[in-house]
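Sequence design from tokenized structure. All designs in this work follow the same two-part layout: the structure record, then the generated sequence. An example of the structure record is given first.
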């Protein structure tokens, strides 16, 4: 059964699509959905201070990663600091990824076993072991409001037999994780909600099997894992579309590791509520900004003389209110850290503003027409 009272309330379902309006209530605050979560892998969103996250970007929730915090500085130290919120200075809700994807991505540095994964640290080569119980203990110590099941991520492409193997292992690990959580007391005085992860690769019948198992376990929320791992984008959309038919309406739905602004709108229309991705911050650091006019490559020479044009004329973030495309290009070419800070601030602000606009469109029953128009514009490249 669910470990905590269901944190999600469905407020409205669109009539022109599967888009949903909802809210997630945690002890650190209420999250309005659909929502994008900035990624703070090591309890830090790269190039952005917690003050900026709260005051300018107005992030409702951020994500950190169990694998990285376990290796450095250690989850017991995070617990000693009073939990991840106090440790990193972000007062709002937080989610921790279990580290399953990171361990999976180590490939040659890991050994998969029935009871967990043996792996070597990417930092120093030291040997470690993750089991469903140890990952739950680590997430209890970190203290995020939403904690994720430890899963075996399925690569793409995968045969149905390979996908079934990963799915079955994830199912057994999820059961063991929930048993451990039920038998062991919390580390911190706030609730932690447990989200299960449905694997199954690109096979709808396996996704259905995974979701039905999580329904039996009555998890607090549902995530679709094993997407955005190299499959065609339309295939990702098809999996989300099919999965939304089986996912319970009264629980939050989370697609992990996605994506572009247009990916998010497409997935919202298919009934997904939550997203995370390193793309807005990583792309910003490498010279790309997402804007209301399309994708802006601010380091391009054509912007060198645009001293009076902000990155996005329709944006109200600190960067766009105060700086020009020419200045950002100059900072990037000069190797100034400020280029990364200003561009990242804009991109994350842009993502969260897009989610706010999406919520408004759903509330006013115009999401389908609004999103189609937005997607067409968002995918353009800014050339002037």
């Amino acid at each position: 059964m669910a470990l905590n009272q269901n944190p999600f309330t469905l407020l409205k379902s669109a009539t022109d699509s599967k888009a949903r309006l909802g809210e997630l209530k945690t002890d650190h605050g209420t999250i309005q959905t659909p929502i994008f979560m900035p990624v703070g892998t090591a309890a830090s969103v790269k190039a952005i201070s917690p003050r900026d996250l709260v005051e300018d970007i107005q992030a409702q929730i951020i994500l950190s990663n169990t694998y990285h915090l376990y290796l450095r500085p250690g989850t017991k130290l995070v617990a000693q600091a009073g939990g991840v919120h106090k440790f990193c200075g972000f007062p709002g809700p937080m989610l921790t990824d279990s580290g399953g994807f990171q361990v999976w991505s180590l490939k040659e540095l890991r050994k998969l076993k029935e009871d967990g994964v043996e792996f070597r640290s990417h930092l120093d080569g030291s040997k470690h072991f993750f089991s469903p119980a140890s990952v739950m203990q680590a997430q209890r110590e970190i203290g995020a409001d939403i904690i994720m099941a430890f899963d075996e991520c399925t690569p793409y492409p995968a045969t149905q037999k390979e996908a079934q193997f990963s799915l079955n292992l994830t199912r057994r690990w999820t059961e063991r994780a929930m048993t451990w959580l039920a038998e062991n007391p919390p580390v911190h005085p706030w609730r932690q909600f447990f989200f299960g992860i449905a694997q199954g690769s690109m096979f709808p019948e396996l996704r259905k099997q995974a979701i039905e198992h999580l329904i039996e376990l009555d998890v607090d929320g549902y995530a679709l894992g094993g997407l955005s791992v190299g499959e065609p984008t339309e295939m990702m959309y098809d999996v989300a579309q099919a999965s939304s038919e089986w996912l319970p309406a009264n629980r939050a739905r989370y697609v992990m590791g996605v994506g572009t602004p247009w990916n998010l709108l497409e997935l919202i229309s298919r009934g997904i509520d939550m997203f995370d991705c390193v793309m807005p911050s990583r792309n910003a650091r490498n010279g790309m900004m997402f804007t209301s006019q399309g994708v802006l490559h601010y380091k391009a020479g054509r912007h060198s003389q645009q001293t009076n044009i902000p990155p996005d004329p329709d944006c109200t973030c600190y960067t766009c209110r105060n700086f020009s495309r020419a200045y950002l290009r100059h900072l990037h070419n000069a190797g100034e850290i400020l280029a990364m800070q200003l561009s990242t601030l804009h991109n994350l602000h842009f993502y969260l503003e897009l989610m706010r606009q999406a919520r408004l469109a759903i509330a006013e029953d115009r999401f389908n027409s609004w999103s189609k128009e937005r997607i067409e514009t968002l995918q353009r490249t800014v050339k002037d």
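Residues 337-363 form the longest helix (27 residues). We note this feature because it recurs in several other targets discussed in the main text.
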